[in-house]
Design brief:
This protein is an alpha/beta fold. The protein has two domains: about 140 residues, 3-Layer(aba) Sandwich (Rossmann fold); about 110 residues, Alpha-Beta Complex (UDP-galactose 4-epimerase, domain 1). Helices cover about 35% and strands about 15% of the residues. The chain has a five-stranded parallel sheet, with helices on both faces. A three-stranded mixed sheet has the order 7-8-12. The protein has a two-stranded parallel ribbon with strand order 6-10. α1 packs across α6 and α3 packs across α4. It starts with 5 loop residues before the first strand and ends with a helix. The relative contact order is 0.14. Bound molecules: NADP nicotinamide-adenine-dinucleotide phosphate (NAP). NADP nicotinamide-adenine-dinucleotide phosphate binds next to loops.
Length: about 290
C-alpha cells in the first residue's frame, strides 16, 4: 500500500474520466478514501456525483480556489487537455502550498525527452518545473491511446468508416496502450507502491508493441472488414500541413514511424508484472466513442 488515500483528478475528460472510474473502484474496495474532480464548471457533473466522486469547481487563475480544493489531498492527477498544459503551473504551486504529496502531470503519451518543440516539449518543461518547486512527481509514458487513435480522422485514422491514411511505411514498432489499461496501471501503482518508488519516477507502460500495418491487418482478420489503406511519405505529410498552426497528423505519424516505442522491452510495465493489458485490436474493438 502506498499510504496515499485521497486523490484529486484535474479535468476528467478522455483519459481523466477513466482514471476517476478506476479510482472509484478502489474506493468501493476500501483502498481509497476520497476522489475529488477539479472542474471549471458546475454543469455536467451529475454522472461523476452518481459514481461517488466529488466534483469541485475551480478557477485556475485563483490560487485560493485551487488551494482550498486541494486541502487534505495526497495525490493530484492532472489530465488537463494538451492545449491547457499551462494551468499545471498554478495547479502545481497550489498543490505544493496545500501539502499535496505527489503530482502526476498530464503526459500519457510518448517519450517527451527528444522533443524541443510542440506539446511534448511543453510537457517536459512542466515536469521539470515540479522538481524545481520541490513537489514530487510521477509521470506515465504510455504511447498513443490504443483504443482511440484509430478513430481520429484528422490523424488519418478513420477506422469507423474503413478509411486509413498511414504516414510513412507503417512498418516501425511503436508502443500503444488503451485508456482503460493506462487508468488501471496509474491507479494500481499509486495505490500499491510505497512513496519511495513513486516519487520522481517515470513509469513506462505498454499495452502492445506492434506496427501500424500489423494492427490494420489484425483488425481486418478479426472483423472480416476490408480497410481502404493508403500510405503517404512523411515528407509529403509535412508539406501538406505547412501553414497549419500545428501539423498534428505529421507529429503523430513521425512518432509512430521514427521512434514510437516507450523504450527497451524489458523496461515496460516492470512495476506490475500481472498487468495483462489488451492488444491494440482488442482495444479498437472495445472503443466506445
Ligand atoms: N497518447 C494519446 O494517444 C493521447 C491522446 C489524447 C490525449 N492525450 C494526452 O492525455 C492528456 C489528457 O488529454 P484528454 O484528451 O484526456 O483531454 P480532454 O478530454 O480533451 O480534456 C481534459 C479536461 O481538460 C479540461 N480543460 C479543457 N480546457 C481547459 C482549459 N482551457 N483550462 C483548464 N482545463 C481545461 C476539461 O475539464 P473541465 O471542463 O472539467 O475543467 C477537460 O475535460 C493530455 O496530456 C493529452 O496530451 C494522449
Amino acid at each position: 500500500m502506498s499510504g496515499y488515500k485521497t486523490f484529486a483528478v484535474a479535468g476528467a475528460g478522455a483519459i481523466g474520466s477513466i482514471i476517476v472510474d478506476e479510482l472509484l473502484k478502489e474506493k468501493a474496495a476500501g483502498k481509497v478514501d476520497k476522489v475529488v474532480v477539479l472542474t471549471r464548471s458546475a454543469a455536467g457533473n451529475d454522472a461523476l456525483l452518481a459514481q461517488g466522486a466529488e466534483p469541485i469547481v475551480v478557477d485556475y487563475d485563483s490560487p485560493p480556489s485551487l488551494q482550498s480544493a486541494l486541502h487534505g489531498i495526497d495525490v493530484v492527477i492532472s489530465t488537463v487537455i494538451t492545449t491547457a498544459l499551462n494551468v499545471q503551473e498554478p495547479l502545481g504551486d497550489a498543490a505544493k502550498a496545500a501539502g499535496v504529496k505527489l503530482f502526476v502531470p498530464s503526459e500519457f503519451g510518448g517519450d517527451t525527452r527528444q522533443h524541443t518543440e510542440g506539446p511534448y516539449a511543453l510537457k517536459a518543461i512542466q515536469r521539470r518545473r515540479l522538481g524545481q518547486i520541490g513537489l514530487p512527481w510521477a509521470a506515465f509514458v504510455t504511447g498513443p491511446f490504443a483504443d482511440a487513435i484509430f478513430y481520429v480522422p484528422h490523424l488519418g485514422f478513420d477506422i469507423a468508416n474503413g478509411k486509413i491514411e498511414v504516414g510513412g511505411t507503417g512498418d516501425s514498432l511503436a508502443s500503444f496502450t488503451s485508456r482503460r489499461d493506462i487508468a488501471r496501471y496509474v491507479v494500481h501503482v499509486l495505490t500499491s507502491l510505497p512513496a519511495s518508488k513513486l516519487h520522481n519516477h517515470e513509469f513506462r507502460v505498454e499495452g502492445e508493441r506492434t506496427t501500424v500495418n500489423r494492427v490494420l491487418a489484425g483488425y481486418e482478420a478479426r472483423t472480416g472488414k476490408k480497410l481502404d489503406i493508403t500510405h503517404i511519405p512523411l515528407d509529403a505529410l509535412k508539406e501538406r500541413g505547412k501553414g497549419l498552426p500545428f501539423n498534428i497528423q505529421y507529429f503523430i505519424a513521425s512518432i509512430l514511424e521514427l521512434g514510437g516505442t516507450n523504450g527497451p522491452e524489458d523496461e515496460m510495465n516492470v512495476e506490475w508484472p500481472d498487468f495483462k493489458p489488451q492488444t491494440v485490436v482488442e482495444a479498437i474493438l472495445s472503443y466506445k466513442p
